[in-house]
UniProtKB/TrEMBL annotation:
This is Ubiquinone biosynthesis protein COQ4. InterPro entries: Coq4. GO terms for biological process: ubiquinone biosynthetic process.
């Protein structure tokens, strides 16, 4: 039930968030183009992630899936919340992030240890949430993870 509540809130809030809070342009890169990148690249791994989870690119929200790929975070609701904690630890601040953390912590108090661990890992990593990932799609994912000390959530 608690996952349903958060997923419903996400679906209601996604379009207004894209329209009013995300100012950068959409990438307009189809999954077929992503999987054409070299196998070790961020672009290839992003394309595989999207195919694996049957996702399609969400205009202006592409970085969200990049964060999943870089931190090797799953897509269950507690994992989504832990990734937001990771990004909070890394310095990211947004209405979406704060809302997910607030509601997620209320609805999943039993997962607080997971969230705390993710936050600490985000603090250790060099700031990476603000990078222009569209320009980094050709970069080897391992290089990005190593350079920014990004560890699995």
């Amino acid at each position: 039930m608690r996952a349903f509540i958060l997923e419903t809130i996400y679906e209601w809030s996604k379009k207004p968030y894209q329209k009013w809070f995300k100012n950068q342009p959409s990438w307009d890169i189809p999954i077929k183009a992503l999987i054409q990148y070299p196998k070790e690249s961020l672009g290839f791994h992003l394309g595989c992630f999207m195919l694996q989870h049957d996702f399609s690119p969400q205009p202006k929200l592409e970085n969200h899936d990049v964060f999943h790929v870089l931190t090797n975070t799953g897509v269950s609701v507690p994992e989504e919340i832990s990734m937001q904690y990771y990004l909070l630890g890394n310095g990211k601040r947004s209405i979406y992030l704060i809302s997910v953390i607030f509601l997620g912590t209320l609805l999943y108090p039993d997962k607080f240890q997971l969230f705390s661990k993710a936050y600490k890992k985000g603090k250790v990593a060099y700031t990476f949430y603000q990078l222009d990932y569209k320009k980094l799609l050709h970069q080897p994912i391992q290089n990005l993870q190593t350079t920014f000390l990004i560890s699995k959530v």
